[in-house]
């Protein structure tokens, strides 16, 4: 199929499913069944087996037609992390069961990876999964779980063989968050909100049919998930002067009385760096479309976190005393993070978490240093694990 043939197929689909008159969920289900959800996924699983690079054209055509989206801000973990992992490691039954309602937004996903004693060192997790007939009984605690308070399912890593080296004794599961053994408690952040949670797992029963990959393959499966997470956080498509740099640039234009040569120099430097990062992200997406996934996602995520923090700090300075105001510190449990729709104080505080979530900056810098720059490796407890099997 050529790109022109794909565009014609989309036109035919829109003619048969008018976004203005078709029920939203009915439209999304039909789009998935037509292979126009993820066009690079196989036929029967929301795609047509086409180049991933064509997805941007597909999304743009549907957006121009006024088609409903599948709430990607609320289900970013499902769309960006769970779906490609299920596609890569799931059984045919698992793909048929989970991918369609995931894409349509009927089922929202969260991620149960980090623990109180295993944040950056995921392989140090203590949550246990013990076989019990056709099921697994899972007990443990997870933290920093974004969206757990409204998620339907979770991707979960647990230790299934404590006698194996820590990287080899884990397995990967798909956990039903409605199980009575799942206890979700809010973690209030410096912003005043609780967008993430701690999750206690008490004899949570997971069918073996919801195990993703082989027993003991959890590290390999989790690595694939983490690769997709860092690309999703640091490599999103964006127009010029979008995101945080756009907000700060607008603040600069609206407050000429606060301009100084030093602030001007800082803004210009950060604007250029943001543009370089945006173009690098575009190049990264082109590589991904060719199946060339490497450590670049780690570098992009590090850059994203640093720029957000520096830009939000500059915005507070530009606003002077206004930047010290905080509109609302009441407790809330939001379903998404809105950097550009809130005030400067919120952006400044929330950006502090960018260098922690999705892999700490310190860990990702080590990955870039060793895998990209070829610097000598630090002494690592996991040095028996080849770099190709470690998170990128």
Summarize the structure in words.
Belongs to the acyl-CoA dehydrogenase family. Residues 110-204 form the Acyl-CoA oxidase/dehydrogenase middle domain. InterPro entries: Acyl-CoA_Oxase/DH_mid-dom, Acyl-CoA_Oxase/DH_mid-dom_sf, AcylCo_DH-like_C, AcylCo_DH/oxidase_C, AcylCoA_DH/ox_N, AcylCoA_DH/ox_N_sf, AcylCoA_DH/oxidase_NM_dom_sf, Mycobact_Acyl-CoA_DH. Keywords: FAD, Flavoprotein, Oxidoreductase. With 392 residues, the protein is an alpha+beta fold. The protein has 3 domains: 1-69, no CATH class; 109-221, Butyryl-CoA Dehydrogenase, subunit A, domain 2, CATH 2.40.110; 235-389, Butyryl-CoA Dehydrogenase, subunit A, domain 3 (Up-down Bundle), CATH 1.20.140. Helix content is 41%, strand content 14%. The strands form 2 sheets. A 4-stranded mixed beta sheet has the order 1-4-5-8. Strand 2 and strand 3 (135-146) form a beta hairpin. Helix 6 crosses helix 9, helix 9 (296-319) runs antiparallel to helix 10 and helix 9 (296-319) crosses helix 11.
């Amino acid at each position: 199929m050529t790109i022109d043939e794909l565009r014609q197929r989309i036109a035919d689909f829109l003619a048969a499913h008018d976004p203005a008159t078709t029920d939203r969920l009915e439209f999304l289900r039909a789009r998935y069944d037509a292979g126009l959800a993820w066009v690079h996924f196989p036929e029967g699983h929301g795609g047509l087996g086409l180049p991933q690079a064509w997805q941007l054209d597909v999304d743009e055509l549907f957006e121009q037609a006024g088609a409903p989206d599948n709430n990607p801000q609320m289900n970013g973990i499902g769309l960006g992390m769970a779906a490609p992992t299920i596609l890569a490691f799931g059984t045919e039954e698992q793909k048929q069961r989970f991918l369609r309602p995931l894409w349509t937004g009927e089922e929202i996903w969260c991620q149960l990876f980090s623990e109180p004693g295993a944040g950056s060192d995921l392989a140090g997790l203590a949550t246990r999964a013990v076989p019990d007939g056709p099921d697994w009984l899972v007990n443990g605690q997870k933290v920093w779980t974004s969206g757990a308070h409204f998620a339907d399912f979770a991707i979960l890593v647990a230790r299934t063989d404590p006698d194996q080296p820590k990287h080899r004794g884990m397995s990967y599961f798909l956990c039903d968050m409605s199980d009575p053994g799942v206890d979700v408690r809010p973690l209030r952040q410096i912003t005043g909100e609780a967008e993430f949670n701690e999750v206690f797992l008490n004899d949570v029963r997971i069918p073996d049919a919801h195990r993703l990959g082989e027993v003991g393959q959890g590290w390999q499966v989790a690595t694939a998930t983490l690769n997709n997470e860092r690309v999703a956080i640091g490599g999103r498509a964006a127009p010029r002067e979008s995101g945080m740099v756009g907000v700060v640039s607008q603040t600069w234009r609206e407050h000429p009385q606060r301009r100084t040569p030093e602030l001007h120099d800082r803004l210009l430097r950060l604007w250029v760096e943001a543009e370089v990062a945006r173009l690098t992200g575009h190049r990264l997406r082109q590589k991904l479309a060719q199946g060339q996934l490497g450590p670049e996602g780690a570098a992009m995520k590090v850059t994203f976190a640093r720029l957000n923090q520096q830009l939000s700090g500059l915005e507070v300075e530009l606003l002077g005393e206004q930047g010290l105001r905080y509109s609302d510190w009441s407790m809330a449990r939001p379903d998404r993070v809105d950097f550009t729709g809130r005030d400067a104080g919120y952006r400044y505080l929330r950006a502090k978490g960018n260098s922690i979530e999705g892999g700490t900056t310190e860990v990702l810098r080590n990955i870039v240093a060793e895998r990209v720059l070829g610097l000598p490796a630090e002494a690592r407890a996991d040095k028996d694990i080849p770099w190709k099997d470690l998170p990128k």
